[in-house]
Amino acid sequence: MKKNKIIAFICAAICTVMLVIPAFAANTRASDQIRAYMMDTIVTEGAINIEFSMTGKHIMDKLGCESIYIYKKVGTAWVYNSSKTEDDTGMSASNKGYHGNTISLSGSAGVEYMVVVTVFAENDAGRDTRSQTFYVTGK
Description:
Elements: H1 2-25, E1 34-44, E2 47-74, E3 77-85, E4 92-106, E5 112-123, E6 126-137
Antiparallel strand pairs: 1-2, 2-3, 2-4, 2-5, 5-6
């Protein structure tokens, strides 16, 4: 009986070690450029408000929102509606460690929209982006 308990303990220990080793081997650092980021959409009457923020690891050459693309649903297809890019007013900042803003684009009541938001941070080591897609209905 004691021998069975020892064998069971050894097997459990081996299984535990096998599960833990891959976790330590994984790269836990998200990015050389990005410390934190946030994206969200808030629908108000006649508008789709896209909130975003980007915090770089240090002072970045440029950071903020790379692009916002809005598509509206027509039948079963998504059709391009409007967009903003990083060089548009309020979308990005240079030589800062943080940039955040709310960009408002028009929306119609009852229309379904797909909003694709991409934020970025760029320095001498390169450029890193994160994207998120939101599905909203206009008010």
